[in-house]
Amino acid sequence: MPSTVPIDFRTLFRALPSPYVLLDREFTIVDMNEAYLAATMRTRESIVGRNMFDAFPSEGESRSRLQESLERARDEGVSDVLALIPYSIARPADQGGGVDLRTWSATHIPLRGKDGDVAYILQHTQDVTELQRLREAARVDSASVLGTDVLRRAEAVHQVNRTLRAERAHLRRLFTEAPGFMCVLVGDDLVFELANKAFRQVIGGREVVGLPAREALPDLKGQGFFELLEKVHQTGKVYVGQGMELVIQPTEGARPERRYVDFVYQPILEPDGTVSAIFVEGSDITGRIRAEEQQRLLMDELNHRVKNTLATVQAIAVQTLRATPPGAFADTFLARLSALASTHDVLTKGQWAGADLGDLIRRTLAPHGLDRVTLEGAPIILPPQAALSLGLVFHELATNASKYGALSSAGGHLRVAWAAEPLHGEPGLVVDWRETGGPPAEPPTRRGFGSRLIERSVTVDLAGTFVADYRPEGFHCRLTGSLAAANMPRTG
Q1: Is the pLDDT of residue 143 over 60?
Q2: What pTM was computed for the model?
Q3: Where are the beta strands (DSSP E) in 42-132?
Q4: How confident is the model at residue 432 (pLDDT cuts 50, 70, 90)?
Q5: Torsion angle, CA of 24/25/26/28, rounded to 10 degrees?
Q6: Which of 96, 270, 344, 353 is 20–30 Å from 326 (CA)?
Q7: What is the tens place of the pLDDT at every residue in 241-290?
Q8: Are 264 and 282 in contact (CB under 8 A)?
Q9: Which carries the bigger pLDDT value, residue 297 or residue 266?
């Protein structure tokens, strides 16, 4: 019958005939067996709690190779073998002092804690100094031949391991730095085993390795990605997603981000046909999708503006033809088109995001000479539709001033002042146009296209008011407008 006596693993560890030492993640010596103490000529009290490299100092390649091997076991969670490594051991004073140059063969085994992370490293060492010396002496007897063969095989294994480690490190770098996002999920719970930088960027920089997919990315719940992964795991069939939208919330309380991705869920099949892992590869195409959306928006906006411009040109042509003598039609019509074009220039300069009111007035009055003009007002950015409407209004006012008002005589002067002023509870403006020094202003005997254009532009397009005052000292008008109303679709 099997024994029911409990095993004392500490006693068993201490009694093992081969040298073993246990290190924590910082390479501090935690415990060791008697064989290790004998091989290193140390006492337990002299090395427990000390860092491996403080207890056994060394410099150069030997130290570097030992540290790299320990770090690989800790950071990659895989056993690592040093087939041969020269490493000097200082003799205690009671054994004559000095330093022994020893050759070792070492294996580093990662031990994981309850959380799955590497908590300790178990080092198994063998002192192969004598075998190494036998080989170097090249004695032709059975012992030297055996030693030479063993060491040759050990060196061959070590070289193969070094090559494999270099290839693995190279592949890991390629995986980590790849421009497309990649990750590997394993097991029935789809636990993240690997995730590269590009993948972490897509999910907001979170660390997900070691976590099940649903736990690592709870903000993706209900978006279909987990269900697709599970289907691939169950069926073993590849899934290709194109232009799929996802909404992520990188940190609690952060604003959700909308992204678009192309990706492949590639099942990793075992010889028996079962799925052991899923390899995910793809690219974040959010920038491309947003650029395409912006392009469509710009095309729609351009189409809308062209239609509006053509409608405006048609109205100007019809009304100018009705209200202007045939001989003056061409000049009047072209002048109004020039005013429309000037406003377009101002808007184009601002990429149609808006136009500065002062710049618009200045451009309109420039052909008539700015030496007799005073402009006063803080910068106000007009929405595109407001700029188009006011550009035509200022052109009509400037034309009248140059024909009949202050700008028609050498002593005349024009002052235009503006300010931001709410209208109907919305952002608005007020413009004051005052002419002096020219001929006395007289009300028109008939209501022409210019008057109707001004009235429609202000009262309909800007939901504002236009008040004209014909004074002996010169023409004066005051207009108000709502900038919010200028952004609303035109219905008439």
Answers
A1: no
A2: 0.43
A3: 80-90, 99-112, 118-127
A4: very high
A5: 10
A6: 344
A7: 999 999 988 777 778 888 999 999 999 998 888 999 999 999 999 888 88
A8: yes
A9: 266
d(CA 228, CA 232): 6
Number of Cβ within 10 Å of residue 468's Cβ equals 17
- Give residue 89's Cα distance to chain centre: 52
CA nearest neighbour of 483 among 418, 439, 435: 418
- Beta strands across the sheet bearing 118-127: 29-32, 20-24, 118-127, 99-112, 80-90
How much is the pLDDT for 6?
Answer: 64
Q: Using DSSP, state whether 92 is helix, strand or coil.
A: coil
Q: 348-372: per-residue pLDDT in tens?
A: 665 556 788 998 898 888 777 788 8
Distance of CA 432 to the CA centre of its chain: 49
On whether the 9-127 domain is CATH 2.60.40.10, my answer is no
Q: Which two tokens stand for residue 322?
A: 């009705």
Helix, strand, coil percentages, rounded to 5, for the chain: 45, 25, 25
- Give 28: exposed, middle or buried? Use CB within 10 Å, 0-12, 13-18, 19+: middle
Is residue 308 pLDDT above 90, yes or no?
Answer: no
* Residues paired with 413 in a beta bridge: 436
Tokens of 136: 């170097």
What is the CATH topology of the domain spanning 294-487? Heat Shock Protein 90 (3.30.565)
Whole-angstrom distance, CA of residue 275 vs CA of residue 233? 6
Q: Which residues pair with 382 in a beta bridge?
A: 355
Same fold, 9-127 and 294-487: no
Q: Which two tokens stand for residue 369?
A: 């000479």
Q: Where are the domains of the chain?
A: 9-127, 181-284, 294-487
> b or e along 238-269 (b: 16 or more beta carbons within 10 Å of the residue's beta carbon)?
ebeeeebebebbeeeeeeeeebbbbbbbbbee
List strand residue ranges (DSSP E) for 141-197, in order. 181-186, 191-195
At position 150, the amino acid (one-letter code) is: V
